[in-house]
């Protein structure tokens, strides 16, 4: 399918989506979000794909929602079109693992989309921020909620109230990103990481993802119970038998359901 605002390719069992609106630093216009949703739907439905990487350019992962497109909207436009919610949430509902590979600016909606992914790998040039306050609005796709859960109230509040950006080192220190790699190696490293995940049992990967996500939404007691039920249910899979037999036989596992 031809896309105008993103590039889509596969590398082995990894689906790679590159945001590609260089003239606007990958600002997330409606057309881009629509294309992103379609690409994610296609990878989700493709049995050959075990994990997804979402990236941008060396200068910008994405500099936010498209300010020029948003500027003239009325409250009624925003409310009736369910602006922000519609389309944007697709990234957070993908069941296959999705890694954000962030170089350069991840600002506003860009930071929010990165946080919707399962984890963020950062290039050493990455910069994260929620600058909406500087243009007279507030984050609308999770910036006040997910960022606070990642980095705690104090840092999230400072970033949302001042628009201050954090660099890759600070983002790693406070747990926003899983690790930092040299900018030039970022996409290859993200694909390598995704490929490793794609080599595991797919249902078990999906269960692990659901269990970690539950930690954001539930109490410890219910989270532990949910985890235990999923843990028990892995014992109904061929892949658990294969994984544990392979360990005992000192060989690599050959998972059937990848
Ligand atoms: N929207 C539209 N166009 C943009 C955006 C944007 N967010 N960011 C950059 N651009 C455009 C610029 O207008 C410029 O275009 P042109 O050449 O036609 O003037 C081009 O990209 C290059 O940008 P700059 O010349 O500004 O590049 P610099 O290197 O000087 O600066 C910055 C880079 C610092 C990233 C700067 O561009 C900037 O501050 N951008 C805006 C950042 C921002 O405020 N983001 C938040 C937007 S609001 C938001 O995301 C709300 C999210 C809510 C949820 C989602 C709702 C749909």
TrEMBL record:
<comment type="function">
    <text>Could possibly oxidize fatty acids using specific components.</text>
</comment>
<dbReference type="InterPro" id="IPR018376">
    <property type="entry name" value="Enoyl-CoA_hyd/isom_CS"/>
</dbReference>
<dbReference type="GO" id="GO:0006635">
    <property type="term" value="P:fatty acid beta-oxidation"/>
</dbReference>
<dbReference type="GO" id="GO:0004300">
    <property type="term" value="F:enoyl-CoA hydratase activity"/>
</dbReference>
<dbReference type="Pfam" id="PF00378">
    <property type="entry name" value="ECH_1"/>
</dbReference>
<keyword id="KW-0443">Lipid metabolism</keyword>
<dbReference type="InterPro" id="IPR029045">
    <property type="entry name" value="ClpP/crotonase-like_dom_sf"/>
</dbReference>
<keyword id="KW-0456">Lyase</keyword>
<protein>
    <recommendedName>
        <fullName>enoyl-CoA hydratase</fullName>
        <ecNumber>4.2.1.17</ecNumber>
    </recommendedName>
</protein>
<dbReference type="InterPro" id="IPR014748">
    <property type="entry name" value="Enoyl-CoA_hydra_C"/>
</dbReference>
<keyword id="KW-0276">Fatty acid metabolism</keyword>
<dbReference type="InterPro" id="IPR001753">
    <property type="entry name" value="Enoyl-CoA_hydra/iso"/>
</dbReference>
<comment type="similarity">
    <text>Belongs to the enoyl-CoA hydratase/isomerase family.</text>
</comment>
């Amino acid at each position: 399918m031809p896309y105008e605002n993103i590039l889509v390719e596969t590398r082995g069992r990894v689906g790679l989506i590159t945001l590609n609106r260089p003239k606007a630093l990958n600002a997330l216009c409606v057309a881009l979000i629509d294309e992103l949703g379609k690409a994610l739907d296609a990878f989700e439905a493709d049995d050959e794909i075990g994990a997804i990487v979402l990236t941008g350019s060396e200068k910008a992962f994405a500099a936010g929602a498209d300010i020029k497109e948003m500027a003239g909207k009325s409250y009624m436009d925003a409310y009736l079109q369910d602006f922000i919610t519609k389309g944007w949430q697709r990234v957070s509902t993908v069941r296959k693992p999705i890694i954000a590979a962030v170089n350069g600016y991840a600002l506003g909606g860009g930071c929010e989309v990165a946080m919707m992914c399962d984890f963020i790998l950062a290039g050493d040039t990455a910069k994260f921020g929620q600058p909406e306050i500087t243009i007279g609005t507030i984050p609308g796709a999770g910036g006040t909620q997910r960022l606070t859960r990642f980095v705690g109230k104090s840092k999230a509040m400072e970033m949302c109230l001042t628009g201050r950006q954090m660099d890759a080192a600070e983002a790693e220190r406070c747990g926003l990103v899983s690790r930092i790699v040299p900018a030039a190696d970022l996409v290859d490293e993200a694909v390598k990481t995704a490929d490793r995940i794609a080599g595991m049992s797919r249902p078990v990967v999906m269960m692990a993802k659901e269990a970690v996500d539950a930690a954001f939404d539930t109490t410890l007691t219910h989270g532990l119970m949910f985890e235990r039920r999923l843990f028990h249910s892995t014992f109904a899979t061929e892949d658990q038998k294969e994984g544990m037999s392979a360990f005992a036989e000192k060989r690599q596992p050959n998972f059937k359901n990848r």
